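A favour, since you know our structure tokens better than I do. Could you add the entry underneath, on a fresh line?
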Amino acid sequence: MVETAPPRVTLRNHFSRPYDSAIAAARTCYSPTIVTPDEITDKQRLTIGAATFEGGHHTVYQHAHFEFGLEYVSRQFVWSFLHSHPFYNSEQQSQRYVRLDKVQAYVPPLAGEAREVYEQAVERAWDCYRQLSALLQEETHATLADIWHLSEISHERRKKKVARQAEKKAIEIARYVLPIAAFTTMVHTLSGIVLHRLWRMQRAGDTPTEASAVVREMVARVKEVDPAFFERVGKEPLADDELPEWPYLQQGSTNGFRQELNAQLGGHVSVLLDYSPHAERVVAQAVRAVLGKSSAEMSDEAALEAVMNPAKNGYRLETLNVAAHSPLMRALNHATYTFAKRISHTADSQDQRHRMVPGSRPLLLATDSPEPDYITPMLIRRSPRAREVYERAMAEAWAAKNRLLALGVAREFALYVLPNAVAVRFLESGALIHLLHKWTMRTCFNAQEEIYQASLEEIEQVRRVHPRLMRYIGPPCSIRAGIASPICTEGSHFCGVKVWESFPAIQRRI
């Protein structure tokens, strides 16, 4: 039986007087001293609040932050709406490492046969998840045992570690069959102006009904501690017919873009579409601009070595990403790259957390496919028994979705039964300063499989056009080898493979 519930929103932390703090910040701009919230008058709340908000001077509303606890919200809502912009911070329950024993999911307002079809689809997906978790654990354990050279005389502690890792890897892959309706739990922090934007845009995206319900609760919690923050300023939510995307959604889904992008990808996960053609020369000039050097004093080669070589640029060895705070590394802002990608919904839920590498992700409402369209992980492809269960799960998910549409269910609600494996196609762009961090983190063997593969492909393609910029790119261990200790920064989560000895030629096995 599917356990469901309305969204639960709690306000864990907040500014004590967010609205007055915003007005005080606005007044400080024109005051010889810092204005405090205690000095704000009711007239200023009325006049300054309206003037700043309506005039677009919104930074004053960015100071106040609100930390929410969110429960009983779907993965689809988080991907489509809550994480679709860069202005937030989330700590979300991991499907990779947390076994989901309970069948808990978002159930839209359905009745009769439609609700029965929906709930049965969710329950079947969870059955397949359990089957795959068991099937994959044995194979995963065998692979990890080989990597870690496990034997009868191995230390008991190592055996237990391998067993735990095998279980985690099994559920990481099994999660691909879970529906995007599956509930998640998270701590979500954002500024006051972002909450105003979410309120305004709550009907945008693939999940207008669920998004509206969650955002209403978030705003209600803020009003409980400071009614003025929304009652004094703000705009009403946009209606569906006010959204520029709305007319296109009435035309139904199409296969056109999928076919075009598949042809561009040619079997790859990620393909370089566009880039700064003179990036090496421009970055070198930017380095010289920062350091006050002429081209006679510092050649292009020397400038690129200064910013990219970890033996010369100690920032490259930091586990704390300080690149944007470094005058030297800000030179990498001038090299930009655009990729076309095809990855699963669940992989993209992690990929989109690299918020400084934004993507034009699809509206599933406009790109839904009547036939199964999904990603199959490596471990599934290697196991005939697991693949049989997996492909059955995919067929059943799409059959349920199509049946719901045939019953007249809104596409918004029918899409929730699709699996985490559903393919999403999009374009993604970023400056090298931010791609560098992403590629460093995501070429580690502990990274999610699809993002790892995409990163490898991206690095190789950029290397062909800008070899000097890509000379020192790879996982932390390959960058640190021979320069810093420890070589692996993962500590007890070390993958067991000396990746740094042969990256990128080394083959990932799990």
User: Anything to note?
Assistant: The CA atoms of residues 343 and 402 lie 22 Å apart.
